[in-house]
Queue: 4 jobs
Job 1
Amino acid sequence: MRVLASAPAKIILFGEHSVVYGKPAIAAAINLRTYVEAELRDDKKIRIEAHDIKVPGLTVSFSENEIYFESDYGKAAEVLSYVRQAIELAMEEAGVRRGINVSITSQIPVGAGLGSSAAVAVATIGAVSKLLGLELTREEVAKLGHKVELLVQGASSGIDPTVSAIGGFLYYEKGNFEHLPFMELPIVVGYTGSSGSTKELVAMVRRRYESMPELIVPILNAMGKLVEKAREVITSELDEEEKFAKLGELMNINHGLLDALGVSTKKLSELVYAARTAGALGAKITGAGGGGCMYALAPGRQREVATAITIAGGTPMITEISREGLRIE
Ligand code: PMV
């Protein structure tokens, strides 16, 4: 028997980092997916195979015969530590230990702030639990995905696995989510080509928070208020044009606050300014920063913004919001 599951990447529209401190955030699933196929084996071994894991500048494929593997593939190996934990948790949840083959194929660049780790964790939990006869809801898979992140990276708000498991457009706060009315967002994602470590960036913000709370707490509070404002705009009766203009302004403020936290880089700022100059209404980091991606809101200007991002040395992706989260294929 075999089960194929898939889960989407995500972008955080507003509220990354402050969400770790219990503030709300708004995120959406996008139409890049990770596919995980799980199949039972006759022996007790667990074999993990990964194809085309996209690490900046490198595409690697490899397979391992044992669950405890060592690898020199850096970022790709990091992805596999999420897979390993996801398999362990799914088996624990099902109360059975079986030998399985797990095969992964992904369209999501690793370390780009698009939630590749969460997507692989969610798809693995979905495939393995179903293979072991367990019917988990998407919410249950999201909670297990959050556990995987906590085990692998120490700190996590849980927003990435929640958006990946549930899909669509979500308002997220302290482990709970609410669906926002679906909006087609004319966005362009710009990839810097280098990756930031979410774990290290979250730890860096924590050190600043502890050493200068009088400065950092007001920044985090402002981010929380900004997310509330964004939700008001999204759920308001304003027409689309007015909504986009207000959301763009809030994105620009959010980017400035993230820069103040220290998670932007020269390249991220260059892509953000290139996008604004090319007519985007707003542009900001998405995800942990330190490299990774920015995104721009550019109604009617997506092509121009994509070109500007390319000229500034980034890789543009014109993408759409995906209504669907975890899917058993
Ligand atoms: O994994 P990324 O790069 O999308 O970042 C996750 C968002 C953070 O707020 C930085 C961390 C978290 O756990 O919410």
Job 2
Amino acid sequence: DPLQDSDLRNLAELGMGNGGSVMKVEHVPTGIIMAKKIVLIDAKPSVRKQILRELHIMHSCSSPYIVSSFGAYLAEPNICICMEFMNKGSFESVYKSLGGKNSRGDATPGPIPLGIVRQVAKRVLGGLVYLYEEMGVLHRDIKPSNILLNSQGQVKLCDFGVSGELENSVAKTFVGTSVYMSPERIQGSDYSVKSDVWSLGITLIELAHGCFPFSDTEVDFDDDETNGPGRMNGEMSLDSASLTPASAIPSAHHTRRKSRGVSLHGGVGTLSILELMHHIVREPPPLLITPLIPHSMEFAKPVTEGGAGVGQETAEEARVFVEKCLMKDPAERLSPRELLGTGWMRDGSANREAREGELDLRTWAGALP
Ligand code: ATP
Ligand code: MG
């Protein structure tokens, strides 16, 4: 039977993005819990039908690294896309609450252990290889909020670019602009699988640092004060005055919930989305900073926090991996397949002890609130 709105019962709101919102729903006839994405579109009926046809590709996706789809339908003026519900949410929400609660009781961001980030990276690459090699599509929107987790420890990609028409018709102010965009894409060159790899590199740094990487605030792993004044939370203030109304601020990804308004320049100044784009194109790419462990403790340290005690070799492999994701020239940047063959992704390589001590994703995910 085709999916229809009247069969779905709203349970909770899961989140709001630029293009719409996502609800947790129950499909009453079957009792299946789903995530329903509601996208407000601005398109003619013929284009709407085209979008639905394109979204149908999602239906034929079958990969452990891709969120499965139950179908899409029109509910004027919206398009609704029903997908598998991932009960631990996105990696954006995961890391943004890893720092515990502050004195006001708000969740604060914190770094995800490197051993976990490694396993996430492997699965995202698996998803990219599947989309590219089996489905012939690029993801186009890799970022922490589009990488989902469930309590079985499964990691799956959502919101990939199956529908060019949908992309064109989403009623948002700043179409296709994201702070995860590669230098070549900012400069208007062709999009390739290498552009997805750049976005993955930025995403991995964000998860491992517990903050968005384009900042001049230092990453401090020993800091117990999770909400100290210099702590970045991956959000930035934008100087609205420096932008034209047409390039309205709200859709620059990190500005949506800028309640804490940490500026990119550590409080000294603010960086507009345009300045950030210039920065990405002109400046060296960001680096992964891994916690330093005294050499003598390399293997001795018990791995109590999901691979927090990774050895130096693993940390070095991780830095090299991220560097290969963030080569500014896409020709030098590795492809997802090539990245899967690098040291950091191999289970039995250099740091066997560190690898074996790694918490598995299921245990880690299960322990999350
Ligand atoms: P943007 O609009 O900039 O892409 P976004 O990815 O956060 O940002 P949405 O795609 O609308 O926006 O998603 C909103 C939130 O809904 C996500 O951050 C995620 O936490 C949650 N979400 C999306 N899909 C699912 C799902 N299948 N299962 C559980 N939660 C989901
Ligand atoms: Mg999304």
Job 3
Amino acid sequence: MNEEQILNLKKELSSPKKIVIVPHKNPDGDAVGSVTALYGYLIQSGHHVAMVSPNDFPLFLKWMEYSDLFINYEQDQLKADTLLQEADLIFNLDHNAFHRAGMMEKALEEATSTFVMIDHHQQPDDFATYMYSDTSMSSTCEMIYHFLDMMEDTDKITPEMATAMYTGILTDTGSFKYKSTTSTTLRVAAHLVDNGANSEDINRKIYDVNTPSRMKLLGVALSNLVILEKYRTAYITLSQKELDDNNFRKGDTEGFVNYALSLDGIVFAQIFIEKASESIIKTSLRSKGDFDVNKMARENWDGGGHQNAAGGKSELSMEETVNKLISILPTYENELHAVVI
Ligand code: 5GP
Ligand code: MN
């Protein structure tokens, strides 16, 4: 966003507006963190703000301030559609294409509001009047901090907002581990700690909330791990039955794919998780170095994301899906071998 856009947006926000904030489908820590942090900011200026999520999000994020105020589009479509139709402004956070909002896609296309996009994924669609898109950013939560800075409003950061932003930075950087963690990211995190984010508390609430069922499911996932040394690749499958047998709850498989990627010498990892309710297999892709899983997800799995973390889906059976992976790997063999780690 340039200076002029910032000034215009400031002007728009200088009187109370009807605002809807939307994360992507299957919201993660960065999505819930950025939406609730922005909510905490906007309500201070007397705006009428609603947060509408395309679907539910995991229990391990439900301790977050304002997370109980989300309207779930799957459960309250009528109310959400009215809010979207009447909104002056719609903020799309942590996604850059309407289809990433799942069932809300049509309602977003039909909305006549002014759109504001704040996002760090590649290849943004062109729907927003105000577009703050930066693929070099660690997280949308870091961008919310920079956005508040541009608005000259960092003094409005409450401990709840600081906690929300810290949470999204923490989860999207793999605990400050990924390449996207810059010195600026760390400085932003430090400011958030100064403003009331408690790192130990947040880490405990996000990462130390395992259930025995989730641990058992992880055991199943690890026993299903397949290593394809020739392609420096490892993959994991989880069938609907395996999920059901271990009392699967939303969010339980978060991070499983990283175990495959943590193998020495492996540069590409993929997990396939059956979702019988949608007749699809949801997949997550992760890589080390410069192997581009965003490209792979776009080319083969009807998805996208970032260079080192992407997602997508398959409408084939699990067996056919795995065969598809095996059949496409030779195309990437040279790229996989070229990765320097
Ligand atoms: P995850 O594998 O953790 O669900 O997602 C990793 C990254 O890929 C996230 O940035 C997420 O937004 C993106 N992503 C996940 N699933 C999809 C998908 O189906 N389509 C697209 N375009 N991006 C996805
Ligand atoms: Mn993100």
Job 4
Amino acid sequence: MIRLTELRLPLHHEEGALRPAILRRLGLDDRDLEAVRVFRRGYDARNPRAIMLVYTLDLAVRDEAGVLRRHAGDPRVGPAPDTRYQFVGRAPEGAPRPIVIGTGPCGLLAALVLAQMGFRPIILERGTVVRERTKDTWGLWRRGVLQPESNVQFGEGGAGTFSDGKLYSGIKDPRFLGRKVLEEFVRAGAPEEILYVSKPHIGTFRLVTMVESIRAQIEALGGEYRFGTKVVDLLVEPDAAGQRHVRGVALAGGEVLRADQVVLAIGHSARDTFGMLRDRGVFLEPKPFSIGVRIEHPQGMIDRVRFGPNAGNKLLGAADYKLVHHCGNGRSVYSFCMCPGGRVVAATSEPGRVVTNGMSQYSRAEFNANAGIVVGISPSDYPDHALAGVEFQRTWESLAFEAGGGDYRAPGQLVGDFLAGRASTALGEVEPSYKPGVTPTDLARCLPDFAVTAMREALLAFDAQIPGFARADAVMTGVETRTSSPIRIRRGLDLQSVNTAGLFPAGEGAGYAGGILSAGVDGIRVAEALAYAATGREVPR
Ligand code: FAD
């Protein structure tokens, strides 16, 4: 196969226009082109009046060597890479069962690949099965009732289940592990298009059924799930050389499960588990994350700015944006987890706190566009101990709870009022989507001063890029604190904890992923590292 990249055609091109364009581009006769597969389809909307579709294509041609020779030196023509996933090994006969803690994308992919290699993992999840969890999550959104063990952050499917389901990432991925994640998602019921559109997303409802389908596959391969099963302690014992080695876990009910290999895929909100790990002496350290608010605009406004007369085109879908501004006070402000045509959701896992995030359905057809507008902070912003970032997050989440009225409504403010430094007393035309509701107030009550200063400057800079971004009636709700993990559970080249052998910290909570796709990729990497360790081999560098 030959890979041809950067083949550009106008947005409204006829279906049959692709083949002649390929023939022209490669100087081929029609009979020389045997098969065409779209590997990726993106778009270039820099000129909204002349949007171009940009194709990456895999082609079967009659004389592959000849075509490659004729186009040697053209970076857009080359052999198509082999993206098929190769397992790194099989579980040895009678291999002990590893434990996977957490069923977010990281734990799910780790467990699936372990099961596919014959390891029969035991999967422990503090929350409930995804259907129960859906009811509990809606309980907070509809009635203001939080279930601390079953919510947007905790339960089958992990944090990304009630999300926009964006499935792209900027990570380096030389082994195409992201492709393996997407292929498993398609096998579990995701639409095929996620394999070729440049910014795939699946929305919330499909994620729910996919998570169930992956569970069925893992169980069919000998894996075993236990829900409502919170890990509250680690068994750590010295090995023959006197080094710390994990030997199992203790569960909330008092039961102890022994295992020499434990994947720790607990996400960024398992604050109690972070504390337990620190108390057990597992090496962890603070890391940078971000804090800010969600902002909402009419989706139609974003579509018109980004796509001009092509707003509403089916292939383009609802428009997104990605913004960054470096401020005079040395802070950077950026848009985070932008959800076109979606809604802002209550995302706390702890009582007495308010946290925002965003989600959408596959259709992305809701009225508002929303995104986090967040300010980067580093461990130098708070006292120097491993879990100080968690305390920092909690402080602002509690203040947001208070400012919202103490019943899980979010504090909200109009952009015009925020820029003018006055509290909002009413909301305008842009109706906030956050449930159970929004209390107009002054968001400066629940954000650090440096964040408020930086966001004021950035909103005006963003308005220069997207006219209307700083419109007076755009709504902001807060606080957005769970942008990534406030800690890193440091691991070595063998992907095991640097001071506790057999423990594989993984995914977003351990500080090695940010988003569904990268968490899934990290899950595969950790499953592979575990297989290498189980078969006495080193993880290749
Ligand atoms: P998680 O998904 O957080 O999973 C951790 C799991 O571990 C949880 O199920 C938890 O219950 C369990 N657990 C924790 N502690 C224990 C314990 N002690 N014992 C047993 N089980 C435990 N990312 C994107 O790429 N695209 C998006 O569109 C997107 N939208 C999002 C929308 C929302 C509302 C949220 C909250 C997040 C969104 N994200 C999105 C981020 C994405 O969800 C996370 O990056 C991803 O889920 C991290 O995966 P993970 O497996 O590392 O951790």
